[in-house]
Amino acid sequence: MKLTTLKTTPLASGLPQVLALPLPLALVLLGLLGLSACSQIPTLPKEDWQVPLLWKETTQARAPESSSSSAALGASTASGSEQWWRALRDEGLNRLEDELLAGNVNVLGLGAQVRVAQATLRQSQASLWPSVNVTASSSRAANQLSVPKGTSYSLNGSLSWELDVWGRIDALTQVTSANAQASDADWAQAKRSARATLVQTYLNFRLAQAQGALLREAEGAYEKSLALTQAKYRAGVVSQSDVALAQTQFKTTQAQRHDLDLQSAQLEHALAVLMGRAPAELRLAPLPLQPMVSGEAKARLERGLAWPPEPPALPEVVALSVLQKRPDIHAAQLRVQAANAQVGVAKAAFFPPLTLSSSAGYRNTSLPGLIGAANQAWSLGPSLVLPLFDGGLRQANKEIAQAQLDAAVLNYRQVVLTAFQEVEDNLVASLELLAEEEAYQAAAQSALQNLKITLSQYQSGTVAYLNVVSAQTAALNAQKAFLNARTQRWLAWNVLQKNFFM
């Protein structure tokens, strides 16, 4: 990446002539020279790569195809709700989101970093102004060749001001300003990400609970089937292998239910930590789910889906410009600007810093008569330090700054590409998971109906117990898969809303 080098102003080349003038006139001209400092910050070239003009996954959510201009792309924008999680209609989730930002450790930590960055900016801005100090001292000396023995008193005021002739302080201020804004953008991104992570964790927690409820009801049904099979075995109607098969199915389902209980507990712990609490401080009551295993297939299926509800439809048009509002992309842009300004700082180090210093005060051996015209002393004058040899230190610093700029540009490009991937991934997920959910819903209805028929046939002795096991397994798996597909649709919708919300 090539950078444009800015030339110094004619005032800089005429510095020796300025210093040769009478002192009062020279000071005035030096002040003007400082105010008209030449900038060493290079001009950032335009990007040599282009983002796509259309989304790839455009079956339902698409970008406008009539124009390729950024203005046209920004004209029709899909914006998400600031509180998009309320679409779930879950009061437990709403309460957690309302309390999240006040306790999330990561968000609070980034808030502290923002305050540090803002203070650093004020620190660099202070360098643009002169430093004024007042010193009062009292000293006693003896055995000095040129100073008589006794006590001396002094009262001095001093002023020191580095004139920003070469733009070093201005460039440094731009570095800290861009970094402060980037920290603020990081904070905004952390808030958005924390909210989306809470939704994601909560959805997975409720999914584990819902599937656990399915397994718990299935476990009860399998236990009854085991008891029925044992009774048939004692009556000599079935073989011992049917009993073993029923026992295996019952215990396997029980083990799977314990695994889901483990997942549910760990996800609840994760929710507590996201809230900034210890796991013991958060307990979420299970939702009143009505899982489906047998009987009245369609009605039970509908009742069992009280949670999660149907996800809202995606907007018909998703403009590419929504990504321009992402705080992480804005932060990456600002860090490119900061790195570019740091190059200006490194280049300004090749020029001699010009400092204007002055002091005035009084010195006397008697404190009562300290302030008087006879005891007055003052000094005023500029100083110019011309760096001659540093072993290549400044050149190395310039190369470091240039490399850091190149890295910042590449990081910005990667952040943009990752944002596009995130949206594309979840656009296609939303579309494909909808079809997957509909297929699993039909499969669950058929499996539940088949289970009802198979149980009746087994009770009448027309089919073996293996048919019952197969029907029960198919029904349970289809219901679990349906819940998983719907939850995955919500997860994809959650990520898209995090990107759409501006």
Number of helices: 12
Q: Which strand order spans the largest sheet, edge to edge or round the barrel?
A: 1-2-3-4
Structural class: alpha+beta
Largest sheet: 4 strands, antiparallel
Distance between the termini: 31 Å
The CATH homology group name: Outer membrane efflux proteins (OEP)
Q: Round the Cα radius of gyration to an integer and report it.
A: 37 Å
Segments where pLDDT lies below 50 for 5+ residues? 1-19, 59-79, 290-305
Task: Give the count of structural domains.
Answer: 1
CATH class annotation: Mainly Alpha
Principal-axis shape: elongated
Number of strands: 4
The CATH architecture name reads Up-down Bundle
Outline the structure in words.
The chain contains 12 helices and 4 strands, in the order ααααααββααααββαα. It is α+β, with helices and mostly antiparallel strands. The chain has one domain: Outer membrane efflux proteins (OEP). The chain has a 4-stranded antiparallel beta sheet. Helix 7 runs antiparallel to helix 8, helix 7 (168-234) packs antiparallel against helix 10 and helix 7 (168-234) runs antiparallel to helix 12 (465-500). It starts with 9 loop residues before the first helix and ends with a helix.
